[in-house]
Specification:
The chain is of the alpha/beta class and about 500 residues long. It has three domains: about 50 residues, no CATH class; about 40 residues, no CATH class; about 350 residues, 3-Layer(aba) Sandwich (Rossmann fold). The chain has ten helices and 22 strands. The chain has a seven-stranded mixed β-sheet, sandwiched between helices. The longest helix is centred in the N-terminal third of the chain and has 23 residues. It holds the Pfam family PMR5N. GO terms for molecular function: xylan O-acetyltransferase activity.
């Protein structure tokens, strides 16, 4: 039975009180007895609280004001824009001075909440060989982002990218790592628009995708060395040894140049094998040919000569005016305790530290050769544009982001892939950098490009024409067309 209080002056009925106990709830009706002095104090307290509450409600929200002031400061300082010229950001310091920031010089910093813009569930074009999560690889390697020293690298914005390349054509030219970057870009862009595969060859080494809403074509063109090469045989079997003609380009990719607006050129991995080097049809040296009566130049000089020939051809292309060529520098492999065919693996679980990443050796030598040849091409170029996409320093640390044993190695059982990169993964940063370059270098409207190639192609009534043939008009493309393994019968020439 509730305890009873004997009233002395004024009796006020109270509201029911819901009292919570650890294991039960009791509803009790009580009566509160207060004296006149206590009643006066209570009234003054309520009056003061009401005035304070009204005052707070009538004032602007201080947190909103703080956010507005911060936004005004950002706009005033220009920090709402990524003003990047030649991959260098301008950054305002505390004293009002302006400093520059190299996108390619920085470090990897952890992001505990994740850094991936897509997943193997949201990217319909993600290839099985790069789907590391599906094959059991722990996904902590995606929780890192590239932080340039002195500034931030903006995250990839698919809408901005597609608006820049609307009505244009982009080609990735190189080995399977070039395709790896193109696959990353496909995943990033597919979060905005699902592309349609409109062409591929029998070996799936040349493939073309179409983003119909933006009239944008993305293609990859396979070449091992950029220059002409012939594989030697023994008793009718391939040997893996090549003769390279360093003064002749591989025409498999160069014949498509007049139809390209953006060219991402790369290479390097195929030079780390036994090669015989030719110039003017004369044998001038080799790579990894110890014991023979030839000069062994090593991979870097051969890479230098191949890129010199490729870039000189671009500069001399009369029908390629306005072409923007980006040289993507060498991205190293990370085999440990053996080569790829000798038990080598890549089982790291986090990026290498600064002391573990040495700037030097063959990998850095190939990168330097590419950058130096690009600079020479820039000086010699007239109506061509050249930029570098320098990923070497960033990727030298990412031994943790290869597929390793976590891929569908149906044809190479027991081998680790420590050359290519998981998707999603740090290779996506290459396309973050690519977008920043495009923002500052895309000064040529689509109409100029179309005028340049008007005499080189024939339009068709079924839809817009491409260098590779005609693709369906928007009315012929259906929303439910699957982008994976979709090979439209478009009478496209062999690539």
């Amino acid at each position: 039975m509730p305890r009873k209080f004997k009233p002395t002056n004024v009796e006020i009925d109270s509201c029911p009180l819901l009292l919570q106990a650890p294991h039960k709830t009791r509803l009790i009706m009580t009566k509160m007895i207060v004296t006149k002095p206590a009643m006066g104090f209570l009234l003054w307290f309520l009056l003061g609280s009401s005035i304070l509450l009204l005052s707070l409600l009538s004032r602007p929200n201080p947190f909103i004001l703080l956010q507005k002031k911060q936004q005004q400061l950002i706009v005033t300082l220009g920090l709402d824009k990524t003003d990047n010229v030649n991959q260098v950001f301008e950054n305002s310091t505390d004293d009002g001075a302006t400093s520059t920031c190299d996108l390619f010089d920085g470090r990897w910093v952890r992001e505990y909440y994740g850094n991936a813009s897509y997943s193997n569930y949201t990217c319909r074009t993600l290839p099985e060989s790069k789907n590391c999560g599906k094959y059991g690889k722990e996904q902590d390697f995606v929780n890192w982002r590239w932080k340039p020293d002195g500034c931030d690298l903006p995250r990839f914005d698919g809408k901005t990218f597609l608006n820049i390349v609307r009505g244009k054509r982009m080609a990735f030219v190189g080995d399977s790592v070039a395709r790896n970057q193109m696959e990353s870009l496909l995943c990033l862009l597919s979060q905005v628009e699902t592309p349609v595969s409109i062409q591929k060859d029998s070996e799936d080494r040349f493939r073309t995708w179409y983003f119909r809403s933006h009239d944008f074509i993305l293609t990859v063109m396979w070449t091992k060395f950029l220059v002409a090469a012939t594989e030697r045989t023994a008793d009718g079997a391939a040997t893996g040894v090549y003769d390279l003609h360093l003064d002749r380009v591989d025409t498999g990719w160069t014949e498509k140049l007049p139809w390209i607006n953006y060219l991402v050129l790369s290479g390097g991995h195929w030079f780390s094998r036994k090669l015989y080097l030719h110039e003017s049809d004369a044998l001038v040296g080799c790579v990894y040919c110890s014991g023979e009566n030839l000069t062994d130049f090593g991979p870097a000089p051969a890479v230098r000569r191949a890129f010199r020939t490729a870039l000189a051809h671009i500069n001399g292309c009369a029908d390629c005016g306005g072409l923007l060529t980006l040289v993507r520098t060498f991205a190293p492999a990370h085999f440990e305790n053996g080569a790829w065919d000798g038990g080598g693996k890549c089982n790291r679980t986090e990026p290498l530290g600064d002391r573990e990443v040495g700037v030097g050796g063959t990998d850095w030598g190939m990168r330097n050769a590419q950058v130096e040849e690009l600079r020479s091409a820039q000086e010699e170029g007239k109506d061509k544009r050249f930029e570098v996409l320098d990923v070497t320093r960033a990727m030298m640390a990412r031994a943790d982001a290869h597929p390793g044993e976590h891929w569908n190695n149906e044809w190479m059982k027991g081998y680790s892939d420590c050359v290519h990169w998981c998707l999603p993964g740090p290779i996506d940063v290459w396309n973050d950098m690519l977008l920043e370059i495009l923002k500052e270098n895309d000064k040529q409207p689509a109409e100029v490009y179309r005028a340049r190639v008007r005499t080189l192609r024939v339009t068709t009534p079924t839809g817009p024409s491409t260098a590779f043939g005609s693709y369906p008009s928007p009315s012929q493309l259906k929303d439910d067309m699957l982008p994976v393994d979709q090979n439209c019968s478009l009478n496209l020439p062999t690539m």
